[in-house]
Amino acid sequence: MSERPARLVLVINCGSSSIKFALVDESRPDFLLHGLAERLGGEDARLRWRQGDDKQSQALGNADHRQAMATLLPLVEKQAGEQLIAVGHRVVHGGEDFTAACRIDDAARQAIEQATALAPLHNPANLMGIDAAMALFPQLPQIAVFDTAFHQSMPAHAYRYALPEALYTQQRVRRYGFHGTSHRYVTAEAARMMGVPLSDSGWLSAHLGNGCSTCAIQNGESRDTSMGFTPLEGLVMGTRSGDVDPNLHSFLARTLDWSLEKIDTVLNRESGLLGLSGLSNDMRELEQAREQGHAGATLAIEVFCYRLAKSLASMRCALTRLDGLIFTGGIGENSALIRARTLAHLSMLGLVMDDDANRRCVGGVAGTISQAAQTAAPQIWVVPTNEERQIALESLACLDTDDRAAH
Ligand code: ADP
What local confidence, expressed as pLDDT, does residue 94 receive? Predict the structure, then answer.
């Protein structure tokens, strides 16, 4: 019997001035090629890429998204050849239209465009990537994988705000949630490593990067998540405040005469760990400063961990059973301190951490950090996220579903 040839997917994640890309082989965990085109539209635009241990970079002049994509195309083709079968695009917002990854045709493109009102910074950049890739790879299927799609399984009692109904029906104001690709990936990985069926299990997941969110996952489906209408809701993040009293807006406008733009900027870019510490949004820097007795850094870490624990405890309401809690993202994967300080507030969930295991699971090491004797208790897991791989897998699953429908 002949082996099926490797199936490769080019994964594209377009920001307003950058393109992250990865060439993913379905059958292996590492990337065949990955890189970043950054500062697009500026004089110092640059493409950096890595193939195994080989790192390279190239100046791109004033390249825009299309030109950057045209430069990386030959690199991808050389590496992938005939085995490249799809391009998978990260798309931030799918509104209520998309509950799973979908093949991008005219109708899907239009729906992504219509969701731009909900994600004015992200969806237009994602569309630039889609248009450039469609022009350059017209023969390949293009698939959109949405940050919001995983959370479309939330029940109404979790996604509706207590606001007048017309704001939901006419303005689409509801909780959407983000980071769905990551929460989905790490939950499947943790269930696999723990040996429990994903379809009959309950999980809490904490994605802690520059943006942070928690999620409750029952039987492989998101039942609630901490981000809402926008990624500002919920946890304390690098520069985002997370939850504040909604009356804060009118207070700041009245007492300081701040405009809506100014309030948006302060809450999204000057708050969170940066605002609390007065020092940095980078957790590594804050941990070092805390070691040296910096009061702002110490407070920022305490607030971050307490608010995270509070969110996880409340997410437990969405689950009928708890098999485990997962830490992921740059902070979740690397900071033994943040995990320990957070778990110290969560004894009511029956989670018992092992200090040595907690110290060992850093720098990409996956594993349980629960005490070995606590076999009946929910387990605590550290799982490095891999959103590019998840986007590739969902793209392939989407193609397979289309193929089955066609036969
Ligand atoms: P993004 O959301 O941009 O993908 P990451 O998932 O890379 O971000 O997470 C970035 C965060 O992870 C930063 O706050 C960074 O300080 C933190 N981080 C990375 N490594 C460590 C570490 N060894 N210890 C503590 N925090 C870390």
Answer: 95
